[in-house]
Specification:
homodimer; about 500 residues; alpha+beta; BirA Bifunctional Protein, domain 2; Rossmann fold; Translation Initiation Factor IF3; 3 domains; eleven-stranded mixed β-sheet; five-stranded mixed β-sheet; 25 strands; about 25% strand
Chain lengths: ~500, ~500
């Protein structure tokens, strides 16, 4: 906490890095691009996990665990899939180390594997090789399996939470008897993702479909939730893929229908990752540091006792008993900071860590039966009686949750603009924000725009209205309404 | 469910494999020795995880996540540690695949890593490389971190849950200012492991300390919980290590004491894994399959409706509403089997899957306001009124939990024998079971006994009474009382 946090406007990227560091969320590991998720950051992930795990279980999904290692030949079975992941694989080739005869340790060449193994970048191939064994008849369908796991993608340019060589995620992999059922699952999950983002992370998102150029390697259709970060750039926060029969074909997974025919199985896959923590920081953070939505905050209320003598300390301590008992009985996650640091240091520290609500109690507050409350989402302090405080805290947490969402929504909406021609599009992209506009549906147009503006089509929003639009680039009638933006 | 389960006495090993398969717990993955944990097996793991996670959090521990990949040089820093793991490593050497110009995919030789990476077999080295950054002063101590993760040990002879190339576990890694504090932590965790095993998994365990020959590679002292399986062999179910200052030395982790001195930090590490699921199967399983302790059973009560017509079906369905509502409100995990299979098939299937309590309801039961109950831990059926059933189920689940523990305890105790000379020891080992006896404390004696009997010292029990014992092999005064057994 020695150096001051830079202002966001003076360098958003350096601000981000320092918030991650100073709030104690994560650290780089010794291997380039790897991440250590520190306890405070990991508690955010645990809270997200608990919420989403409940959502998918309530909708009939179950968890399982599939192996980390994928035989090279499996990954290669689906052409687009291998194309998409070939350049970023961690490849296991040997299984033993030995002494070099001197003081060093070398890889034992005799332990070379017959077939190299790929550390999963995603698990479609290994899972479908198992579904091949598990699926015979329509009675075996649907399979609605999810796994919480680590995956590895050998990225060159990395940033904590946003892009790291290894990250944590959930990956759902479902198998269905019909095309319609797979499509419904893809969209149902997309709605769960939207609910997770908006109702828990307080991040407004646009649901949409990716263009061919941006879709998942091996999918028929990729749906996504896209959010606007505090620097007006877009972040893809979750994806849900309709895989069609691509993986069923690659692994020859057929089932016997009710009327005794053989059909290929239909598939979906979907995932959200620790990237969501990056999205929370980038959406809600301010010049004082992190701001956490109460529903996923490891600490919802921090209590700062203020005292100058042992006598005052015990006075404050006693005064706090009732409020702490009450908050704990409500299941509110609280933390009391009795360290030797100064109150000023403590205020800054817990603001940096994004705790939604701070209570301050000193001898004078005890005397007046008062408590001082400071909300992380707005400036200023509240002075309430002890009794009112106890009653009001759940309500305040709720207000903070909603207000963070409203602030983010207002920010996104005020930075989203219609662009009716290429100059307007370029202006929006230059100034930052989302440009909604018509697109002729051609990959070549998409590429030309990207080359000139560095912006990509984030998605075709599900609520698109392309009817009276013209393509922002070619001026021909638009096939789709799309959102262009620079992205993480 | 086509082939019948072999009796345990006709081949315990084949019985085990078939229970894992027929109960739907796990499957082998495509890479030799890897395991797919199927949803039913994974739910057991989730229940165990939830229980133990709560235990460690209540004792002040927090979760975090450290990277999967360990630089080769890190693993090599602690001499015993590398010695212990060198022969069973998965080694990552490259990061890209490419086309071979024909139709194949090959490893791109240009993507060779400068330093090879080891897929973590355990995380001491990578964690202590981070602790080096995080620990400066006594104020930074203790660090009480745990992680839930996958680890890889390239095993040649594998068996599902018991020994697989990849498995899931928790690994605690703590850092302390004093030797005493580290020792206390090691033993506190051992007690938590004992409580997890006995009070939740219903597996009686002996707490003890490993001999030098059996201790963890890099530890000063390894404590363990040892259990007796249904074939009278021992299974190490969890270990807690006092690492002394070994890893602090290897990674040069020092802290400034209150009086401004520099000291090396003291460490512990401890883990339990998906092996516990193997322990549950091997401890409680019988000739009908799995038997699960209610506290960790994915389904605690299975309900089998019995009917021959649609009219009977709706009669039974209606009759069940009250009982289901009641059980759900009590938080009891229930499952209703309305599939088209015969009642007989269903009984066998849910017995195989180890569900603690089965309710059967047919039209005659409806007429008589009755329910038929079958406990998985004892033979016979109970016939109770609907009202009594509702009231009695939580109590019955409790009884089943306790009875499974009692049965296992009785089995272990009746197969544990004192051996006062080598002939007696050999007899115990030959007939199966634990032999408690004196040992002179010499590694050579331990080796000679192992060579002749295939039994190892499972542990020096914490409640040893070596005072009047003689070494079972040499006849000289015993240094320790130990437990010999064949082990998994």
């Amino acid at each position: 906490m020695s150096k001051k946090l830079p202002k966001r406007e003076d360098g958003f990227s350096s601000w981000y890095t320092q918030v991650v560091n100073k709030a104690g969320l994560a650290d780089y590991g010794p291997v380039k691009g790897t991440m250590v998720i520190k306890p405070y950051g990991f508690q955010i992930w645990e809270n997200i996990k608990e919420i989403f795990d409940k959502m998918i279980k309530e909708t009939g999904h179950v968890n399982a665990y599939f192996p980390l290692f994928i035989p090279k030949s499996f990954l290669a079975r689906e052409a687009e899939h291998i194309e998409g992941f070939a350049k970023e694989c961690a490849i296991v080739t040997h299984t033993k180390l030995k002494s070099d005869g001197d003081n060093g340790i070398i890889v034992d060449p005799d332990s070379k594997l017959e077939e190299e193994l790929i550390v999963r970048p995603t698990s479609e191939t290994i899972i479908w090789s198992m579904y091949k064994k598990w699926i015979q008849s329509y009675r075996d369908l649907p399979i609605l399996i999810n796994q919480w796991a680590n995956v590895v993608r050998w990225e060159m340019r990395t940033r904590l939470f946003l892009r790291t060589s290894e990250f944590l995620w959930q990956e759902g992999h479902t198998a269905h008897a019909t095309k319609e059922e797979a499509q419904k699952e893809t969209l149902d999950i997309l709605e769960l993702y939207k609910s997770l983002a908006e109702n828990y992370l307080a991040i407004p998102v646009i649901t949409g479909i990716k263009t061919e150029a941006e879709k998942f390697a091996g999918a028929e259709r990729t749906y996504c939730i896209e959010a606007m970060m505090g620097d007006k750039k877009a972040l893809q926060a979750g994806t849900s893929h309709n895989l069609g029969q691509n993986f069923a074909k690659a692994f020859d997974v057929k089932y016997q229908t009710k009327d005794n025919k053989e059909e290929l199985v239909w598939a979906t896959s979907w995932g959200v990752s620790t990237r969501l923590i990056g999205a929370i920081i980038l959406t809600h953070g301010d010049d004082k540091g992190l701001r956490l939505p109460p529903k996923i905050a490891p600490i919802q209320v921090v209590i700062i006792p203020i005292y100058k003598s042992d006598e005052q300390k015990s006075l404050v301590k006693q005064y706090l008993v009732e409020i702490i008992t009450n908050l704990e009985s409500l299941g509110i996650r609280i933390y009391q900071d009795w360290t030797d640091n100064t109150p000023g240091y403590k205020f800054n520290n817990w603001e940096m860590k994004g705790v939604p609500l701070r209570l301050e109690v000193g001898p004078r507050d005890v005397e007046n039966n008062n408590i001082v409350l400071a909300r992380r989402d707005i400036d200023g302090k509240l002075f309430l009686s002890k009794e009112v405080t106890i009653k009001k805290i759940p309500e305040l947490l709720n207000e903070i949750q909603n207000n963070l969402f409203s602030q983010a929504l207002e920010f996104r909406d005020s930075n989203t603009h219609q662009a009716s021609n290429f100059d307007e599009l370029k202006k929006v992209i230059k100034e930052g924000g989302f440009a909604r506009c018509g697109w002729d549906g051609k990959a070549s147009t998409e590429t030309l725009i990207k080359e000139e503006t560095k912006a990509t089509i984030r998605c075709i929003p599900l609520d698109e209205k392309p009817e009276n639009l013209k393509c922002v680039f070619t001026g021909t009638p638009a096939k789709h309404e799309v959102i262009f933006a620079k992205a993480y």
